[in-house]
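Exercise 7b. C-alpha cells:
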C-alpha cells in the first residue's frame, strides 16, 4: 500500500525535475488528488493529525481548499449521493440559468439541445471554478448547496489564505522570473486543463449517467430506501480490471466499493469489488458497470444528450 502512496508522487516529481512541466504538473495534480483521497477519507494510518496535514497539502499544491472539500465531499456527496437537492456535487440552479441540465427536475430550455457538445469543453475549467468557489462559499454564501459551512478557526483560515497565495506564487509569480509571461500563461493553462479534465471526467463517468438512480426525497424530506443499496445504484464502476485506471484514478473506477467502504484504503478495492458484485447478484441489487472508461464516458455524453433534447423523462410501460 505504501509503495503506491509514495511511488506515484516520486515518479511525478522526477518528471517535474526533468522540466517536463506541462506533462508532469498536470498529471501530478490529478493523480495526487486521486491518491490523497484515501487520506481525506481517513483510510491511511490511524492518526488524525496526519490526515489533516496531508489533506491540507491540497491547499498548497493546487490552490483548492481541503476545508471546503471536506464539507462538499465527505459531509455532502457521500451521505447523499445523487439525491436531488442534497448532494453538493449535482447542485443545479432552480431557474433556467444553469450551464447544463443533468436532472429531469431541471427546467428545459432550447440551449440544452447541444449541451453534449459544449458542456464537456468547459470541464477544463474545473480547477479554476473550484478555487474561486472556495472563496465565495467560505466568505459569502457560507454553504455548498444545502450543506452549511461552519466558520473556520484561525488556523484553518490561515491555511486557506496561505494555500491560495502559495499557489499563485509558485504557479504564476516565480515562473514569470524564469520564463516569458506568455509561456507561463500557456503552460499554466495546459497543465490546469489536463488536470481538470482528468478529475472531471473520472467523476462524471461514475455518477452523472442515465444508468444510475437519480433519487428524490419524499415530501417530508426523508428517504425510505436502504442507504447501502442507494450507494450501489447511484454509482457506476468501469474498467475495474485495468491496472492503469486502478492506479491513476486512485481506484476511483471502483466507485461502488469506494462509496460502500470509504474508510478502506483504495489499494484493496480490486479485491473487494468482486465480492460486492457477487453480493449484488445474490440479493438482486442492480450493479452498474462499464467494461472501459470510454464506455463510461460515453454514457455520460449520452446522458447529457438525452436530457438536452428531451423535455420530459420518457415513460416506459
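Sequence design result:
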Amino acid at each position: 500500500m505504501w509503495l503506491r502512496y509514495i511511488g506515484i508522487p516520486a515518479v511525478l516529481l522526477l518528471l517535474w525535475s526533468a522540466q517536463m512541466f506541462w506533462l508532469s504538473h498536470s498529471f501530478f495534480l490529478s493523480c495526487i488528488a486521486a491518491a490523497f483521497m484515501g487520506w481525506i477519507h481517513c483510510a491511511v494510518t490511524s492518526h488524525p493529525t496526519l490526515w489533516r496535514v496531508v489533506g491540507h497539502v491540497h491547499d498548497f499544491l493546487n490552490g483548492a481548499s481541503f476545508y471546503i472539500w471536506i464539507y462538499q465531499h465527505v459531509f455532502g456527496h457521500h451521505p447523499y449521493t445523487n439525491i436531488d437537492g442534497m448532494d453538493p456535487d449535482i447542485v443545479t440552479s432552480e431557474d433556467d440559468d444553469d450551464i447544463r441540465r443533468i436532472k429531469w427536475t431541471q427546467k428545459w430550455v432550447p440551449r440544452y439541445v447541444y449541451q453534449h457538445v459544449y458542456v464537456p469543453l468547459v470541464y477544463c475549467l474545473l480547477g479554476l471554478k473550484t478555487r474561486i468557489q472556495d472563496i465565495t462559499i467560505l466568505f459569502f454564501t457560507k454553504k455548498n448547496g444545502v450543506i452549511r459551512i461552519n466558520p473556520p478557526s484561525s488556523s484553518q483560515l490561515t491555511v486557506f489564505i496561505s494555500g491560495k497565495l502559495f499557489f499563485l506564487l509558485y504557479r504564476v509569480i516565480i515562473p514569470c522570473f524564469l520564463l516569458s509571461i506568455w509561456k507561463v500563461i500557456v503552460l499554466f493553462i495546459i497543465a490546469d486543463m489536463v488536470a481538470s479534465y482528468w478529475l472531471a471526467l473520472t467523476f462524471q463517468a461514475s455518477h452523472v449517467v442515465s444508468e444510475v438512480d437519480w433519487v428524490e426525497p419524499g415530501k417530508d424530506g426523508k428517504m425510505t430506501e436502504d442507504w447501502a443499496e442507494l450507494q450501489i445504484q447511484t454509482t457506476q464502476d468501469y474498467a475495474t480490471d485495468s491496472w492503469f485506471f486502478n492506479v491513476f484514478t486512485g481506484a476511483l473506477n471502483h466507485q461502488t466499493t469506494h462509496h460502500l467502504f470509504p474508510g478502506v484504503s483504495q489499494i484493496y478495492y480490486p479485491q473487494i469489488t468482486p465480492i460486492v458484485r457477487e453480493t449484488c447478484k445474490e440479493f438482486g441489487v442492480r450493479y452498474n458497470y462499464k467494461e472501459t472508461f470510454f464506455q463510461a464516458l460515453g454514457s455520460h455524453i449520452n446522458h447529457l444528450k438525452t436530457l438536452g433534447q428531451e423535455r420530459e423523462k420518457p415513460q416506459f410501460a
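Instructor comment: Residues 11-26 have pLDDT under 50 and may be disordered. Residues 43 and 108 are 41 Å apart (CA to CA).
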